[in-house]
Amino acid sequence: MPNGLVAHADPHARGHAHHPALQHHFQTLGQQHEAATLGMWIFLVTEVMFFGGLLMAYLLYRVWYPEAWSEGSLELDIVLGGVNTVVLIASSLTMALGVRAAQTGAQRATVRWLLLTMSLGLTFLVIKFFEYKHKWDLNHIPGANFRFEGPHAPQVELFLSLYFGLTGLHALHMVVGFCLLAVIAWMAHRRRFTPEWYTPVELSGLYWHFVDIVWIFLFPLLYLVDRARHFG
Amino acid sequence: MTTTVLRRVNYLNVKYGVASWLLTKDHKRIGILYLIVVAIAFLLGGIFAAAVRIELTTPQGDFVSADTYNALFTMHGVAMVFFVLIPAVPAILGNFAMPLMIGAKDVAFPKINLLSWYVFVIGFVFTLAAMVLGGVDTGWTFYTPYSSVYSSSHVLLTGIGVFIAGFSSILTGLNFAVTIHRMRAPGMTWFRLPLFVWALYATALVQILGTPVIAITILMLAVERGLGFGIFDPRLGGDPVLFQHLFWFYSHPAVYIMILPPMGVISEVIACFSRKSVFGYSFVAFSSLAIAVFGFLVWAHHLFVAGISPYSAMIFSFLSFAVAIPSAVKTFNWTATLYRGAIWWRAPILWVFGFLGLFLIGGLTGLFLASLGLDVHLHDTYFVVAHFHYIMVGGAIMGFFAGLHYWWPKMTGKMFSNSMATLAALLVFVGFNLTFFPQFILGYLGMPRRYHVYSPEFQVLNVLSSAGASILGVGYTLVACYLLHSLWKGEAAGANPWRATGLEWKTESPPIPENFAETPIVNEGAYEYSKREVKVA
Ligand SMILES: [Cu+2]
Questions:
Q1: What is the ipTM of this complex?
Q2: Which pTM does this prediction carry?
Q3: B523·A3 Cβ contact <8 A
Q4: Which chain B residues contact residue A61 at CB under 8 A?
């Protein structure tokens, strides 16, 4: 038999009610979930490549200018950076608990965990803002007004350009994540998720964890370049 | 007997009005939307090219100023690379045909598909704005520090346009990869997939892994130019060559975004018009993946004279030779498919023959440029210009036209004039060779690219090239004329005018909005031509 138009049971045709979240071009909720999950993972791969370009520049110049990298890194506030690292790791925990709550159908707990995650995200951004503000006050923003004393000032400017590039891009992702979670929390509040279908919660969680992991790389790369020598 | 003609519902007439198009989530309509924007960009890029060729008919700079000339060839490159070649086959033909070919109702994410078109249009508008305001003069490669510091043209605006359009390409790649993984009809196994689908899958890999890198690179350039951050700035110890590495890390694989999908088209059309299954199916399928993977390892062949280490140059030279192998595998397999086939001389196969000849020349001259010694002589001459036009226009655009002619009856339900299409294919083939073959000689003789004046001894070859470009222009215009004409006057195509085997030919022309009345079940390979019928005369 050649490739033919043989009837294949279509959920619409069969007449039984299907899940309200099932889009018409998918056959089953499972297929829809798998497609969305794969899509999110591929999106995260593109994000890795996106940050990768900046990290390549970081790597090259770090090898070329180790002294400037050490000098620039010491300018960063390790306490605020450290606190932010803890805040983000905590937010990953609350996010995971939110996904778990959605999975078990605990609607109100889902909303609660999502709101807590958002407030931790906001805390991170506020702390980051004060770090930036401090740099602004010291004229440590690269560009025409950049001031820095020291033998490696131009290369420290390179370091700080990459610092602002990397953390700025990361902060932008945090803002996007915050807005995303706001929408998801609203949907959860409207009882749109069930244990059979909570894909958006799960995928937002993937995104949130990814943004956290980016920070887990950025913190040592930027704040801890040469600290060990200066603790002794 | 009363003849009541029932209006059969298809994706074109199911709804009318601008809003029904601008808000559509139907992959077929989105393909048409891309076709319209890409056609505009192609016309624009063509006009810039025409101006360049007019200037180059005489050795003096008498038609435009040097600055205008720089802007013209830059805008030609930007329009053609980012707004024609990258989207042409995946976003137009892929969007239209791929879900049909795998027996799906739509792509996995129809809303994201429409979003990617809007993103593309917004990027195009930014680039157009830059062009209207006076253009860019950096060359389409945006090399630093000229682009980041010295150029006074609209680098930032163009850069933003290209940056935004890049996300359209990423979203299309993501959507296609997921669609091919998750949306295949029952029985459509990986090794029953049409080779066009394999090619789109390999392309999606390049779009996913490569495009974000150009996006971040342009962003770094924009931050440096706009905010005065130092990243590639040599005054701070930054490295302009790093920009070249990052740029070509995407832009070499981008060549495969342009050429892999047309290669997929070639496989479809060759099988159909020689009434045979594709010789060495799995080799052709895997060579697409091999090209996608190895294509990421050759970028520094653009930097042989940029002062990179001779050891890395040697490795990149070797790998650049190696990446020719999968392309050669494809070419040999296509030839073997044609061999003892019953070739049916219709327009689509003529464009394929054009592709084969031009791609062969383009590919082989690429090996000249991959050789370390020879590249020192040929770098930044017209030899390079001729080489990449043979690949991108001779290969990618010929392949695009092969696919457009092949699927046109499916897209519109109408047949175009075969004699006109034959004439156009011939004009384009002759015009193309006349335009670009002299440029190989010019480059070999040492004429550098990107100058608006040249030594008088190069004039004869340049006049030949400009003459060829006019024939090429007539050929492309002819295509537009008879295709548009077919919309009004073309004969009805019927479901399967080429008697082809793919699933897309099992549904009506134009297809119904949901593609298939019932989900197809697949139980054989993609190219069972020999089983089906006696060879056509
Ligand atoms: Cu290349």
A1: 0.93
A2: 0.94
A3: yes
A4: 237-239
